[in-house]
Amino acid sequence: MRLSRRTVLTLSAAAALVPRAALAVTYRQITWDDLIPQGVPYGEIIGPGQIDEANDTWNPEYDDNAQKVNTGLDGATVKLPGYIIPFDVTAEGVKTFMLVPYVGACIHTPPPPPNQLVFVTAETPWANDEMWQPVWVSGRLSATAMTTQIADVGYQLTADRIETYEW
User: Fold this and answer.
1) What predicted TM-score, i.e. pTM, was given to this entire model?
2) What angle do CA 79, 132, 70 make, to 5 degrees?
3) Least crowded by CB within 10 Å, which of 14, 68, 137, 152?
4) SS3 for 121?
């Protein structure tokens, strides 16, 4: 069987497009409720906590439910709405931040439970100067706990994309 030059070029062009299509990422849109394992109630503050006078913050004590994370989301590519509490701000924008479920969380009120906090690292800084606006953050989620200067966190996310949340 002999192939024409046109057929060979067409097949080559089609083959070149296959890897790009295979690498396209589909983000699963999730809500904050999805971060709590099914059947587990929202974590409640159960004790007086401790005052961190040096940082002028209150570190509350939570019940055991606050630490429980949805391990089914570990490694998933997700899209989650929320608000930014910046950590690393440069002239180019914010590269690391806490994503929180409601405006003012961790600043004006006690922090939400750890399984309602996501520490985000962005490859491309978020340059928007309206920090109090809601955003969509898309990337790979990790159900890995960590402690920050603001609160204990249940999840980490490497952001591929950050965009303004449109109502």
Assistant:
1) 0.82
2) 35
3) 14
4) strand
